[in-house]
């Protein structure tokens, strides 16, 4: 099912934006980011976030990101589940330099963030993401062609019970601004299938 962009609401608005039924364009403000405490000890919670709400416990959300305009360290855009300042997930590519950038994800539970990444070439300028929910567990996947997806991460979000919010974000943590474009947004049945391997412990 194609995502209805009219259902999306801003948590914080960007420098500039343009939203049509098929396309979202975000121009970031400098010094915007999402991070909580871990290692760096600072807390940043001012990135533009555009989301919809759902109580559906099992679904997948797909979106294509284009970021040919990213050019400064940490420029980033991607998919997000943002519940509040201390509980959220994001998956994105962060520009680093003209040689490589970081494809990765951050999970923040109760005010502490982690960051899992892998280096990819700097000439990659678009990426598909698929975010899947199974109750309070989530799977993040990425794809270069929108067809074959590769697992980035499986994670748990402690406060993701009942209604959640999810969507897209873009930000520039340093003194930068760039244009991020989101297309191909779709909601489907959960593509992350139930586990069919080792059985759960009896006391789980």
Detail the topology: elements first, then pairings:
Layout: E1 9-12, E2 16-20, E3 23-27, E4 34-36, E5 43-45, E6 49-54, E7 58-66, E8 76-84, E9 87-95, E10 100-109, E11 112-113, E12 116-121, E13 126-134, E14 137-143, E15 150-156, E16 164-171, E17 179-188
Antiparallel strand pairs: 1-6, 2-3, 3-17, 4-5, 6-16, 7-13, 7-17, 8-9, 8-16, 9-10, 10-11, 10-12, 13-14, 14-15
- Count up the domains: 1
Number of helices: 0
CATH architecture: Sandwich
**Structural Rg:** 16 Å
**Based on DSSP secondary structure assignment, what is the total number of beta strands?**
17
Overall shape: it is globular
Query: Between the first and last Cα atoms, what is the distance in angstroms?
Result: 34 Å
Task: Explain how this protein is built.
There is one protein chain. The protein is mainly beta and 204 residues long. Helices cover 0% and strands 55% of the residues. The chain has one domain (5-188): Jelly Rolls (Sandwich). It is built from no helices and 17 strands. The strands form three sheets. Strands 1, 6, 8, 9, 10, 11, 12 and 16 form an eight-stranded antiparallel beta sheet that branches. Strands 2-3-17-7-13-14-15 form a seven-stranded antiparallel beta sheet, with no helix packed on it. It starts with 8 loop residues before the first strand and ends in a 16-residue tail after the last strand. The mean pLDDT is 95.
Question: How would you describe this structure in keywords?
Answer:
204 residues, mainly beta, Jelly Rolls, eight-stranded antiparallel sheet, seven-stranded antiparallel sheet, 17 strands, 0% helix
């Amino acid at each position: 099912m194609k995502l209805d962009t009219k259902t999306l609401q801003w948590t914080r608005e960007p420098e500039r934006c343009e939203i049509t039924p098929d396309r979202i364009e975000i121009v970031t403000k400098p010094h915007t980011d999402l991070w909580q405490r871990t290692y760096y000890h600072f807390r940043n919670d001012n990135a533009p976030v555009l989301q919809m709400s759902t109580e559906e416990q099992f679904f997948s959300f797909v979106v294509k990101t284009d970021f040919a305009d990213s050019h400064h360290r940490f420029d980033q855009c991607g998919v997000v589940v943002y519940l509040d300042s201390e509980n959220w997930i994001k998956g994105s590519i962060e520009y680093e330099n003209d040689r490589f950038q970081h494809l990765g994800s951050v999970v923040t539970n109760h005010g502490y963030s982690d960051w899992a990444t892998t280096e990819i070439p700097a000439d990659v300028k678009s990426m598909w993401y698929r975010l899947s929910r199974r109750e309070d567990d989530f799977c993040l996947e990425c794809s270069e062609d929108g067809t074959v997806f590769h697992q980035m991460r499986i994670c748990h979000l402690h406060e993701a019970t009942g209604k959640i919010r999810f969507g897209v974000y873009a930000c520039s943590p340093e003194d930068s601004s760039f244009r991020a474009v989101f297309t191909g947004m779709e909601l489907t049945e959960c593509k992350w299938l139930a586990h069919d391997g080792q059985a759960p412990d009896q006391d789980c």
